Amino acid sequence: MRLVIVSNRVTVPERSEKAAAGGLAVALREALEKQGGLWFGWSGAISEGTSHPVRTIQRGKVTYAVTDLSEAERQSYYLGFSNRALWPLMHYRLGLTEFSRTDYTGYLAVNRRFAKALIALLEPDDVIWIHDYHLIPLAAELRRRGVTNRIGYFHHIPWPPSEVFGALPFSSTLISTIASYDLVGMQTVVDVRNLISGLEAMCGAKSDGRKVRVGRRETVIQAFPIGIDVEAFRKLAAASVRSATTPLKTAKESLGARKLVVGVDRLDYSKGIVQRLEAFGQFLRSHPEHRGSVSMLQIAPPSRSDVPEYAELDRQSDETAGRLNAALGEFDWTPIRVVKKAYSRNALAGFYRRAQVGLVTPMRDGMNLVAKEYIAAQDPLDPGVLVLSRFAGAAQQMGEALIVNPYDTHGVAEAIRTALAMPKSERIRRFEALYATIDATDIDWWTKRYLDALSGIDMGLPDVAPPAKAKAKPKAAAKTARPGTRSAARPRAVTGTSKAAPRARPVAHLP
Ligand SMILES: O=P(O)(O)OC[C@H]1O[C@H](O[C@H]2O[C@H](CO)[C@@H](O)[C@H](O)[C@H]2O)[C@H](O)[C@@H](O)[C@@H]1O
Ligand SMILES: O=c1ccn([C@@H]2O[C@H](COP(=O)(O)OP(=O)(O)O)[C@@H](O)[C@H]2O)c(=O)[nH]1
Fold first, then answer.
1. What's the predicted TM-score (pTM) here?
2. Most buried residue among 102, 130, 430, 495 by CB atoms closer than 10 A?
3. Domains of the chain
4. What is d(CA 205, CA 220) in angstroms, rounded to the nearest whole number?
């Protein structure tokens, strides 16, 4: 069996790059390397012209297959429908959701183009694992071209209730494409519940809370909270203390004995950066005894800057930090430093280790890996305290953090005070519980659990009628298959636009 991963963006590693840096990309690459595999997606580059050939690059047992987007595709598929419609909608931000039919058409067209390109690379036994909201209709596009391979999907961001999701034009067409997957992984049980009730309400699906039946297809929808490479992060953080050259050393010199509160997020409105700066300002106003002895460092690398809402956030965060620094700072103390650049994992591990408080307060977040990285990086003998938004997926697993409501400025301000005053024994107790959780559910656990589930699923009936000769196979397979094993009699893949492939039917169309 070969694993095929599909994601919006694919980063081809340098020849010399070691897998030790950790992270999602590395974990997926490791999963591919174990059995050999293919990773398909956007190269991240833009090129013009009408044809965008697929380039393949070999790295050990992994083949990377990438295609460029045209500028029009980047605008409609990536910036437009994915990041101005789906991203705010999935993060419960109806007020920021901008729908355009042109963007939606572009989104569907890129999914169609990806499906066609991928089919040319598929082999009969491939297990396909598709990632994220950019590619929701991809399985439906593959199915309508006759692909019967196992196809899984992992949704990295939240899924809102259908009252919110239903505001999107063509929402029922889009959600119905979920039924083309065999396994759908979500970050939390709340997301699972929302997706299933959406399928019930909008597509007449029948469900037992885990398996969902839409028409002839059965899809398993389950929570698989994503993890991090805990051990790698722990080691990076421990090494940063000894290193004489890391940014941590400079930070130590510039901070002196001051305590540090750290935030690390892409510059994204879902992360609650402006609200967090306000909460830190409120903390300093309510507790003036801390002025001069605590600083906040917000690392905020720019993200999706071509989307107007992101440009506005960039302006707002500068304005807020500037205003608070002017109002509260002293000639020898700047309360807030906002650094708008990306740091290496190495440097981040050092900052996390140095910070007495990790401030992770998104307004809504699929998981939030920073929360887990902060814990992994702590000194077990003198750990810092995690202040965590109840609206991050991570809060479902990390109840021993100080859980806050990011909309409550005074509440977050009080949590900062509580964290800074927390006795060491309580800090250690909370840290040990949190570390045990993230260690038991690390990135290897996540990858294995998802892939085991995907390969253990009974394939049931395909969503499109296979040629008459092959029809008996799925039933026989269902009888003989043992739980947790793949049935030997499962339907073979139909790849390419073979003659046997059923007639295409519309997947998600504009009227
Ligand atoms: O590729 P970009 O547009 O620059 O965005 C970066 C990634 O952001 C999102 O991350 C989500 O996945 C994380 C891991 O599961 C999760 O912890 C976090 O809460 C989510 O926001 C996005 O889903 C990715 O596709 C982007 O690559
Ligand atoms: O300067 C930075 C800021 C962030 N990150 C990494 O980006 C990821 C952010 O993941 P998270 O789940 O917190 O949010 P996302 O950006 O995926 O929504 C984490 O692994 C961070 O370590 C990084 O490498 N350098």
1. 0.89
2. 130
3. 3-226+445-480 (3.40.50.2000), 230-439 (3.40.50.2000)
4. 12
